[in-house]
Design goal:
Layout: H1 4-7, H2 16-30, H3 39-55, H4 58-67, H5 84-94, H6 102-112, E1 120-126, H7 128-133, E2 135-146, E3 162-163, E4 172-179, E5 182-189, E6 198-199, E7 212-223, E8 232-235, E9 251-257, E10 264-266, E11 269-276, H8 278-283, E12 285-290, E13 295-300, E14 309-312, E15 328-334, H9 342-354, H10 356-374
Parallel strand pairs: 1-9, 11-15
Antiparallel strand pairs: 2-7, 3-6, 4-5, 8-9, 10-11, 12-13, 14-15
Protein name: Chaperone protein DnaJ
Domain CR-type: 134-216
Family: Belongs to the DnaJ family.
Length: 375
């Protein structure tokens, strides 16, 4: 997914002056005349110009910020980029006037090169256990597709595009400027055909000459078991249609997972707080522990303290790319009832009389330590 702000190395809040300043610096750094044998630099130069054309225009920038690159398709001329005259003017300033015919070829290549379609983002929310065990969801997305009526040509079937009589099909016009440093040639898109080199006299009635249509599609998304909150599922080729035979973009599905009332997840392990009785803690024995699939018996030792954590191996969340699971950890919390029956009170009173020796010894040791602090 192309990010015009990232291409120009600026923040989304950058002012027009900051945008232009960064553009001028990058355009000079990657200009084809300064990098004649560096194809990567030349491609980056084209991306810089495209990003600048959008972000230097407040209207296009607002559309891009709201709808992404796809929202600009109807605002960039018929298959071309109507704002290149401003870009060329800025380049004229950067290099002290004009540039060589080396860029002339670069512009023509840029106009005709296949362009990959932009990516699409969709967001879905699923239940905790759907994330654990996997599921499928059908979602609706809006994306651009090649117009079936005109097969992407932009002209009404049965009619033909005509070569632009002003630029003779090149899509560009050359002008010569005189300055104190001599004569300089400047190349800019033809204002009649918007840089396409062709004139559509009878635009397609379905797509209005654009060659694409925005449609709503239903997409089935398979959510793998073990997926976690904020993870992203990519579906190749389910994004927007490309230009000039370019491949389709991708669809990125951002997954939000609801929290569970009992289970808490960290990685592929899950954690629960389990209340137990005083007698369970003192006597030990089997207690019931809920897992993701069932309720199991677990033996806890006699004399278990409140806050002790136990592990059940392999009862956690499945790993996405391998046949293994995390573990389940449960922390016991001794439940102290607020109200008890007369019978329970009588039993506890008898217990208090008989349990004194051990606790008295522990208390004495504790207060001996406290006494040492103050001596």
């Amino acid at each position: 997914m192309r990010d015009f702000y990232e291409i120009l190395e600026i923040e989304r809040s950058s002012s027009q002056e900051e945008i232009k300043s960064s553009y001028r610096k990058l355009a000079k750094k990657y200009h084809p005349d300064l990098n004649p044998d560096d194809k990567e630099a030349q491609e980056h130069f084209k991306e810089i110009n495209l990003a600048y054309e959008v972000l230097s225009d407040d209207n296009k920038r607002q559309i891009y910020d709201t709808y992404g690159e796809e929202g600009l398709k109807g605002n960039m001329g018929q298959g071309g980029f109507g704002g290149f005259s401003d870009i060329f003017g800025d380049l004229f300033d950067i290099f002290g006037g004009g540039f060589s015919s080396g860029y002339d070829t670069s512009y023509e290549d840029f106009r005709k090169r296949p362009v990959r379609g932009s990516d699409i983002r969709a967001d879905i929310t699923i239940e905790f256990k759907e994330a654990v065990f996997g599921t499928e969801r059908e979602i609706n997305i809006k994306r651009s597709e090649t117009c079936e009526h005109c097969h992407g040509e932009g002209a009404e079937p049965g009619t033909e595009k005509k070569t632009c009589d002003k630029c003779k099909g090149t899509g560009k016009m050359k002008t010569v400027r005189q300055s104190a440093f001599g004569r300089f040639m400047q190349v800019e898109p033809c204002d009649k055909c918007k840089g396409t080199g062709e004139i559509i006299e009878d635009p397609c009635k379905e797509c209005k000459g654009i060659g694409k249509k925005v449609v709503t599609k239903k997409i089935n998304v398979k959510i793998p078991k073990g997926i976690d909150d904020k993870m992203v599922i990519s579906l190749k080729g389910e994004g927007n249609a490309g230009d000039n035979g370019g491949e389709k973009g991708d669809l990125y599905v951002y997954v939000n997972v609801k929290e569970d009332k009992i289970f808490k997840r960290s990685g592929n392990n899950i954690y629960i707080e389990l209340p137990i009785t005083y007698s369970d803690a003192v006597l030990g024995g089997k207690i019931k522990v809920p897992t993701l699939t069932s309720i199991v018996d677990y033996d806890i030792p006699a004399g278990t303290s409140s806050g002790t954590t136990f592990k059940i191996k392999g009862e956690g969340v499945p790993f996405i790319k391998r046949e293994a699971k995390g573990d389940l950890y449960f922390r016991v919390d001794i439940h102290v009832p607020r109200k008890i029956s007369d019978e329970e009170r009588e039993i506890l009173e008898k217990l208090r009389l008989h349990e004194g020796k051990e606790i008295t010894k522990e208390r004495k040791t504790f207060f001996d330590k406290v006494k040492e602090i103050f001596e």
